[in-house]
Amino acid sequence: MKKVYFLLLTITLLILTGCKPQNPISKTAYMLNTFVTITLYDTQDEGILNGSLELCESYEQIFSRTIETSEIYKLNHRKPEETVFTVSDDTARLIEKGLYYSRISDGAFDITVEPITSLWDFTSEEHRIPDESVLDEVVKKVGYQNLWLEGNQLTFLSPDTTLELGAIAKGYIADRIKDYLLENGVKSAVINLGGNVLCVGEKPGKTPFKIGLQKPFADHTETIETMDIRDMSVVSSGVYERHFVIDGVNYHHILDPKTGWPYQNGLISVTILSGESVDGDGLSTTCFSLGLDKGMELADSIDGIYAVFITEDGKVHYSEGAARFLAK
Predict the structure, then answer these.
(1) At what angle do helices 166-183 and 277-301 cross, to 10 degrees?
(2) CATH number of the domain that 160 lies in?
(3) Alpha carbons 153 and 159: distance in angstroms, whole number
(4) Region label for 128, one of left (φ > 0), alpha (ψ between -120 and 50) or beta (otherwise)
(5) CA 125 centroid distance within chain
(6) What is the pLDDT of residues 205-260, one digit of tens each?
(7) Which residues neighbour 212 within 8 Å (Cβ) at sequence distance 6 or greater?
(8) Considering its fold, how many domains does the chain have in total?
(9) What is the mean pLDDT of residues 181-194?
(10) In which region does residue 116 sit, left (phi positive, over 0), alpha (psi from -120 to 50) or beta (all else)?
(11) Are 163 and 75 in contact (CB under 8 A)?
(12) How close are the terminal C-alpha atoms of the chain, in Å?
């Protein structure tokens, strides 16, 4: 029960109901190490709900680094002499997107960070800090430059290279669920993958969805801002999601690939509004990793991307155009 309560608090975004929509149907399941909720506003077809969750589960079976039958697990546990693999279309697309954000951040975001993340545990109640000498060794194994992707052919240039796609996988999965909903005639829905929120269309009556940004370190029902969202994704990364405190130091899950330690750059959270959720997922971590100034510069340089930064002093900073989404 304690674990479930903790996971509820990790959800960084809250869907605000406002006026209750007419006859929405919703279903929640536990997968992707979080609570996944699909809500449909313009249909009563339970089969579409079930199909959405089944699709989500099928992607978990591909992208998980801990499920032994998954594609990522098999890649990470390859034999030393194995270097070239033909991967599935979905895995190729996800790795391609991850490599893109690794490159534009110059490795501040890195999809080969798995040797580091495997040393940290932010979900159990036994909070331990990895040995510094061990971290110093494993950071040498990290480097997106040791991956080469051409079409569906993935080449590992180092036997030490392993994949960690958790920072972008939920966004990619949300996008595929949206595709499934649209193919089945759904035009008004909310896909919530543990706080990664993707709004399909708008609410019946042509009103926007109200998405609340959680107040950092507060109860999950407290919001710091509310956004009016139509047919967009809202994804947050923050130091209060998966974290623990020892001797007054907050150790959180956004790790610096170059040091192995959590980023300490004055940011508490970054929220990205985007058309595709995979971009919101990748950029929320990337912009956080870059810090306020460089992260803001990156967000402003990409069309259709809007960012909200919260700094340790509690101030909220908006990228160009982001403030226009504030609820009226």
Answers:
(1) 120
(2) 3.10.520.10
(3) 17
(4) beta
(5) 23
(6) 999 999 998 777 656 667 888 999 999 999 998 877 765 676 676 777 889 999 99
(7) 13, 14, 15, 16, 223, 225, 226, 227
(8) 1
(9) 97
(10) alpha
(11) yes
(12) 38
